[in-house]
Design brief:
153 residues; 2 domains; 5 helices; rod-shaped
Length: 153
């Protein structure tokens, strides 16, 4: 099927744009790997999920833009978009994503602490008799000397 030059330029620029989106997804993946420090098995699974996601997004994008026709200039556009992103925006986006993810993790920890606080208070209240018992045993030991107070009680 013949395509007009303007249509080919549109498809090429769409491929460049998809490459930029893939670069952004890659940065999200990189930050998650940096912050989570996964094992080799988890890293392998995450790699497979990344590439499956990127492949599916590319195929869907090409079906939307060019009715599924993939030509060499489409692949070149993807590579150029990814490289442009990695060389220009990537370092700033990674810094921003680290701050956002670290803030999100901090907020989750604080939320869990806040939700756990009433239960911790209940545990502390229920432990008061034990603490009072231990104090009374210690004070009796001090009054009676080193003898075994717990056996006498």
């Amino acid at each position: 099927m013949l395509m007009s030059t303007s249509n080919q330029v549109y498809i090429f620029l769409s491929a460049v744009y998809m490459g930029i989106i893939i670069g952004f997804i890659y940065d999200i993946y990189r930050v998650v790997r940096i912050l989570s420090n996964p094992t080799k098995l988890v890293t392998g699974i995450m790699d497979i999920l990344f590439w499956v996601t990127v492949t599916l997004l590319s195929i869907i994008g090409f079906f939307y833009v060019s009715s599924g026709e993939i030509r060499l200039y489409n692949i070149i556009g993807l590579v150029i978009g990814w490289m442009l992103y990695l060389l220009t925006l990537s370092r700033y986006i990674i810094r921003l994503l680290k701050i956002i993810f670290a803030g999100f993790i901090w907020m989750c920890k604080k939320t869990i602490e806040l939700l756990a606080y009433p239960f911790q208070m209940m545990i502390d209240i229920l432990e008061w008799p034990k603490i009072l018992w231990e104090k009374s045993v210690r004070s009796r030991k001090d009054k009676l000397g080193d003898s075994n107070v717990e056996e006498n009680i």
